[in-house]
Each structure stands twice: as C-alpha cells, then as structure tokens.
Amino acid sequence: MSDQRTTSASGFPEKFFWGTATAAFQIEGAPHADGKGESIWDRFSHTPGRIARGETADVAADHYHLWQSDLDLMRRLNLNAYRFSISWPRIFPEGYGRFNEAGLDYYSRLVDGMLARGIEPFLTIYHWDLPQALQEKGGWANRDTALAFADLAGMLARRLGDRVSYWITHNEPGVTAVLGHVTGEHAPGMQNLALALPVTHHLLLSHGLATQAIRAEAPRPLDVGVTLNLAAVEPASDREDDVMAARRFAGGWQDNFLEALYHQRYPEEILTALQMLGAPADVLREGDMATIATPIDFLGLNYYTRMIVRASRGASLLPEIVTPGGHLTVMGWEVYPQGLRDLLIQVHQTYKPARIYVTENGAAYPDALLSDGAVHDPDRTRYLQLHFDATRQAIAAGAPVEGFFVWSFMDNFEWAKGYEPRFGVVYTDFTTQERHVKDSGRFLAEVAATNGARLDNE
Ligand code: FCB
User: Fold this and answer.
1) Cα(423) to centroid of ligand 1, in Å?
2) CA dihedral 301, 304, 308, 313 (to 10 degrees)
3) Under 8 Å between Cβ of 67 and 114
4) Segment 96-132, tens digit of pLDDT
5) From ligand 1's centre to the CA of 9, what distance in Å?
C-alpha cells in the first residue's frame, strides 16, 4: 500500500515498478516458429487493404529471436519490471486441446531471462491475438471462447506461476469489442454494432473465469488484475445531445468495464441501447456478473489522451470524436496529462482498487536516426515527464499507484497503422533490427534509477 510511511521524497512509493510494455504480436515476428498456430492478427494483417502500406508483422522487431539482447538493454536502462504478453496460438495452436510445449518453453525462458536480470515479469495473457481456429467458431461472440481462455490461464499459472507474480488477464477489452467488432479497424474486422455487448460480456466473463482458474492452479498466491483503456472523455459542448453522447460513449467504451468489475452491473443505458440493436437475449446468464466481479488484486490502467465527443449531426448512431487543434502526436492524439491525474483519482475514489498500475502510456513521434546512432526525441521525453508528474500528483491525492509502464520498449508494429507510428523509447531499425536508445530512453533510465527524483532536476 502506498501511504506516508512508504512514499519516498520524490513522491513515488519506495517500492515502485518502472518498466515498459509490449505485446507479443507487435514485436515477436516468427509467425510459424516452433509449431505456432495462426492468430486473427496473422489473418487480418495478410488481408489486402487492412494495414497501412500493406505491412505485416511477420518480422516486426524480431523479438522472438532477439529477446536476450532486448532484456539486456532493459536492464541497462535500469528498468525493474517488464509488461509483456503471450501469444495464445504459440501454446494452443487451435486455441484449445492440442498443447504445444515449444511455445510455452519460449515464454518460460523469457521469464527466466527477466528474473536473472532483476526484472519483474508482468504477464498479459491476452493482447488481441486470438487463435484463428477459435474465430472460425465465432471468436469472442461465442461463449465457449471464454471457457477456452480460462483453460489457457489455468495452464499458464500452473507452469509459470512459480516465477511470475503479476498476471493481467486482458489488455483493453473495450478495444477488442469496439475496434474489432464495431468499427472493424482491428482483427477480426467485423462491423456489427449488435456484437458489442456479447463480445464485451464474454471478454469480461473470461476475465472472471481466468482469475479463478489462475488462483486454483497456481502453486502460490499470485496478484491478478486486468488492464482497461481509459480516456478523459468530455462532451464537445454543453448542448444536451453532446452531453448525452459523451455519457453514452464513456458508458460503452470504459464505464461498462469498471461497473461490471467493481459493481457487478452494466450501465442501464448501455443495456437498453444494445437490446434495441438486437443483441441476443441469452448472453447474460445467471451468476455471470458475480463471476466477472471476482475480486482482483489490482487494476491496470492504460492512458494516452482525451476524447472529445459530440452527437452525430447526421443519421449515425455512433457519436463523433472531435480532433482538437494544437499539438498532436502521430496518432492524432492530444497531449493531455491532467486527464491521467484526474482519472487515477476518480477511479480510486469511485471503485477503490487495492492497487493501480499505469500499464501503458507513451507517444508516437516521427523520429530520425542520426548517423551517430542518436535519436533526439524531446517531444516524447516531455510527454513522459508530464505524465510521470501527473501520476505523482494522483499519488499525493491518495491514488494507490505502484508502477508505471511506458508504451513501448521499442518501436513496433502499431496494428492497422503498421510501422509508421514509433512509440519506443528504443529505436528499432526495421532493416537491420539494430536497437538505438532514444534520448527519451535515457531520460526514463534516469527516472527509474532515481525513483522519480530526476523529475525535479530540470
Ligand atoms: C494501446 C494498445 C497497444 C498499443 C498502444 C499505442 O491501445 O494496447 O498495443 O497499440 O495502444
């Protein structure tokens, strides 16, 4: 717990995790190595028209082969934690049933490599790469996928639970539901608003079942949580329809997850809206909400930006997201650090999670690799500095934040946007696979080494 006794002079708790985050599909490459099955992102990224410039993640940052030197570099940057994800189809190529020992071995060695370097593993079980074979059976719209996920989680806990203490069931289930099934921007590329509720519900159900499976199968008590993407959502004006649109947007995009996890319910307006759209009536079954609200040890929070929402001025049921003027990142996202502070405080006061980790935060800027190997990225450094500071302010206001993971360790495959948005604090040369520490990486290394005190010597 973070309180007066354990907080250091810099304002961060004495025991604080400073790390970076990645996801298997975005960095590993090696889509066919050692018996791996196909994932929905393999299929999607090879479908013409889905990814910018037709790029694929077949090589990505080649981390499948370069993991040892990548972990060495993390150590050199003084990082004491690393949030990574496992690829489900490496372990169960068809999603369930046939187990692939070689896939599990890879992650077992990776975990050993972290521990040998004094890096605490934070394992995310699902960061979006569902086995394609499960998609053929309906994917997250099918309740059985939740059961297969719980089996995977239990097996991982049995085999890695002796060494991995921190477990994150899902990364950003809201993005899977909305970008994967409503807008179609992400795999599996569906555009069907009526799928939003079933997919959301099965993701949450799978989280609850997995939390129980991890606790049942692990050789010792482990810390289990889930990572949500929360934005600072605001209406574009005080017009009533904009205010309602912002409320509905926040309800479907983020509040429904918090309400289900902590209050065992979905916001009423979301249920009504989705039932009107024809969501199947048998999705919500007795006992599900209690399973979803199985107590967790921590909440993971990913924060990037503010979202300004206005009611559609046309016929669309979906609201519009207004892009503000001013300084934007390559993703078109506004730099809005006070949103992180406010959300941390708000979530702490409303839902009282025992602990919070900022499991992702970072920014994409157009980096240039100079001939001497330097990458000067003052915008990213500034972005991180502002968000570290916002976190410190939230801690001072009582939010129990105990770790911060920068997205990302190195530049990688940014989903539908391909390789153009560079989020790393380490530059990836995608031609040679050489890594170059950016100025922001050096800054992070100093912040980590001083547990935040570096923020005060500007
Ligand atoms: C988050 C994802 C992560 C990365 C960042 C930029 O939504 O979890 O994989 O793409 O955005």
Assistant:
1) 9
2) -100
3) no
4) 999 999 999 999 999 999 999 999 999 999 999 999 9
5) 32
